[in-house]
Amino acid sequence: MRGQEAANLLRDSCFQEEWDALADACPWATACQSYNYISTWFEIYSNCFEPLFVLHETGEGRLAGLLALAISSDGKSLVHAGACQAEYQVWLARPSSSDTFILGALSILREQFPGKYIRLQYVPDRTPMSWISHARTRGVSTKRTVVKRPLLETVTESQINASLRKKSNRSRINRLKKIAELKFTRISKRQDLEPFIGSIADFCDLRQGAINRTFPFRDDPHKKEFWLGLLEKTGLIHASALMLGDAPIAVHIGPISRSSVSLGIICHSPFFSEHSPGKLLILYLAKQLAQENFSYFDLTAGGDEYKSRFASRFDEASILEISFDGFDYYLGVMRHGLLGSAKHMLGPVATSRAKALRRRFSLSANLFHLASSKKKIIYHSRDTPPLPPISVPTVSLRVNCLSDLLLPKVRYSRREMECEFLAEALRLLEAGARMYTYANRGILLHCSWVASDRSAPPGMMRGRGQAWHFWETYNVTEALAPNVRVLSLSQRLHDAKQFASSQDVFVHLERRDDGAARFLEQYGFIHVDRANG
Quick check: pTM over 0.90? Predict the structure, then answer.
């Protein structure tokens, strides 16, 4: 069934009951195959996909097998229902009839969609696979790749408390408590998660953009509503946050599959990275899962090194690449499988590559600072001099606003360029630098910084002791309102009085910024020649 016929079936209460009963009887079923998960996804993504169900019914009309797929709106792709939002992708059946069902389902799909390709990512460990050896006789090409899946088994509350009492963790917790009240909270209602979903999206997109060159929320405008919608379904989603005062500094949202919770969205604020809020969140979450009688926290397959550090044991999952056309099959493997399979098979090697990419981003940004130093004028003062009060600003400059940082940027036409910019920004924010941005009509036009010696990039001029540095990393000069750059500099210098004692102040200007140069000279800053210091 497909299209409107399948959509009507989704609204049938009897079909829903049959679906739930089959999922309960299927040992390898996960939350991603539940009626609530898939029906919510089709509702939210109705303009992107149409439903396609392959069903098997017994002689008594009972549902005995279900493969829930979706057809992309352009008709070119077949995907498991949920697409990239479904961590586990598999069919539902009873163990005794699983092989018969999936072979029959693939035969029907081959007849209806000749030449198409399906990729089932992370088929659970307990799924029967003996049918694969018979698939070619049905004209179906299948490639299976086995990957490791890390699991964190829940332990007693006393064991988790012992880990939290370790010197390093206790120090992190105490430092955070000096800033504001620190608490771990379980989120069970949509209205409790909704105020934070914007921050969650910013945390995710900044880190993923900087490291993996992807933007999960920015590239998918439905993602926020999907996770909020799932939270409205009882017993489907486990959400929690590590709160510092009234703001989340680390968040996890993941599906519940029987006696386990799977890693879904996990993110943390870059402003508190030195305190390892993500690690603390996982420890508090493990304690919570033990109290709620879950057996384990499923860290899911993937090459992230931190998963292996937390794992207490491993099992396996499979990637199945299925094609109804030999040529298309090999193209599909090349398109979808090679990089992903290599990442999961190589494990730590893939993680090292991700680290290398990030180091390269930081290195390229540092080299940029070094290479461009000759194009800059440096102004110096022994202290931030007295400045007149800032008049009512004509534009709005925002401080440490991640959503501004993630806006489109006209100067970076290629994603690689933007991601290098974000990688350097992430490093600066994590090091404690302070960011100022100006945006207009949804476009980032200005980004500038204030940082100590510890936070500033290499290549900045150093003073005799501790120094503070002021510089810009992004300007769309032709689109800026008048005096934005002078206003930005003035605001940064005023703000510096609040957190910088009497120390050297260096302002690094581009040579063409005559307005800022005149402003600095007016208030006693002296031009410094880099060559002789």
Answer: no
